[in-house]
Amino acid sequence: MHITQLNRECLLHLFSFLDKNSRKNLAKTCHKLLEVFQDPLLWSLLNFHSPVELKKDNFLLGPALKYLSICWYSERVKVCNIEDWMKNSFQKDFCNRHENTVSDFLLDVCNRCPNLLSLTLSGCGHVTDDCILQVLKNCPNLKSLKLENCVRITDRTLEAVTLHGGSLRTLHVDFCRNITQAGLERVRQKCPSVMLRAERSANMIPDSKPEKKLMLEKASRKLVQL
């Protein structure tokens, strides 16, 4: 029995076990399998592990998408999460090459995926408050938002949660060094039903302040003296 003799439901089930690249390669073999690849039911869950993956034509964005995860665990993350004043020219050039990769992708998600239920971003150093605000506005059913180590996130995102996160039940902002304790308390007061987690966030030194560099230099001198 040839694979193309299987009905649509069986083919969708088989495709569901394949990664994005394997699905795309299989879809190239015949028109029937291409139709299965393009079925929105196949794309309710998407996981990405590098910025390169976001630019590939091996997935489908649409109203069926419910769960989206973009997690960067590589040397790219370390470079992008360094404060701008600490980067050398090579690192700045490296970051500029993919600065808008995630934000552009999230804009597509806002336009095409209104039924999103869960968004996980980890180590995405270029995600801004404006990105998250648009997601909250355009995905009203969002229940889970996890922003671990998204260093550009500030109290503006927390304020957006209180204004537009009516369906939100889980909010993780661990290691987001530019949010404050006051912002976290505001979320707790205005959104008591949201499970909030913010490990180390408000206790970390925020970015882009001349005083920060001075504080780090003083701390370094103290360690040398000890």
From TrEMBL:
<feature type="domain" description="F-box">
    <location>
        <begin position="9"/>
        <end position="46"/>
    </location>
</feature>
<dbReference type="Pfam" id="PF12937">
    <property type="entry name" value="F-box-like"/>
</dbReference>
<dbReference type="GO" id="GO:0005737">
    <property type="term" value="C:cytoplasm"/>
</dbReference>
<keyword id="KW-0833">Ubl conjugation pathway</keyword>
<protein>
    <submittedName>
        <fullName>FXL22 protein</fullName>
    </submittedName>
</protein>
<dbReference type="InterPro" id="IPR001810">
    <property type="entry name" value="F-box_dom"/>
</dbReference>
<dbReference type="InterPro" id="IPR006553">
    <property type="entry name" value="Leu-rich_rpt_Cys-con_subtyp"/>
</dbReference>
<dbReference type="InterPro" id="IPR036047">
    <property type="entry name" value="F-box-like_dom_sf"/>
</dbReference>
<dbReference type="InterPro" id="IPR032675">
    <property type="entry name" value="LRR_dom_sf"/>
</dbReference>
<dbReference type="InterPro" id="IPR050648">
    <property type="entry name" value="F-box_LRR-repeat"/>
</dbReference>
